[in-house]
Amino acid sequence: MSTNSKPSKGVIIAIAVIALMIIAYLIWAFALGDLMNGLNTGETEAVPMK
After folding, report:
1. Whole-number mean pLDDT of the chain?
2. Which residues are CB-neighbours of 8 under 8 A, at least 6 positions away?
3. For a 10 Å CB count at each end of the chain, is N or C smaller?
4. Structure confidence by residue, pLDDT tens digits, 18-41
5. What residues form the membrane-spanning segments (predicted)?
6. Residues 33, 2: Cα–Cα separation, whole Å
7. How far is Cα of residue 18 from the mean position of the Cα atoms in its chain?
8. H-type helices in 1-50, by residue range?
9. Phi, psi for 35 (deg, rounded to 5)
10. Mean pLDDT across the stretch 4-22?
11. Spatial separation of the C-alpha atoms in residues 21 and 29, rounded to whole Å
């Protein structure tokens, strides 16, 4: 039983880590997208296009 529980526990931990990484990446990408949009709008406002 112990030999069967170890791999399953490792798989669960691996899935949890991957899920957390994906969630963190989505949050980081969303925040970075807002930051880039803010910088882009700031640049367009600071430098008027002729």
Report:
1. 78
2. none
3. C
4. 999 999 999 988 888 877 777 766
5. 12-31
6. 46
7. 11
8. 2-46
9. -65, -45
10. 88
11. 12
Only one residue has tokens 């990446």, namely 25
Query: What residue type is 26 in one-letter code?
Result: L
Q: Is the pLDDT of residue 10 over 60?
A: yes
Q: What's the predicted TM-score (pTM) here?
A: 0.51
Residue recorded with tokens 């925040």? 31
- For residue 36, what are its two tokens? 């880039």
**Which residue type, as a one-letter code, is found at position 8?**
S
CA torsion 34-36-37-42 (nearest 10°) is: 120
Residue type, 10: G
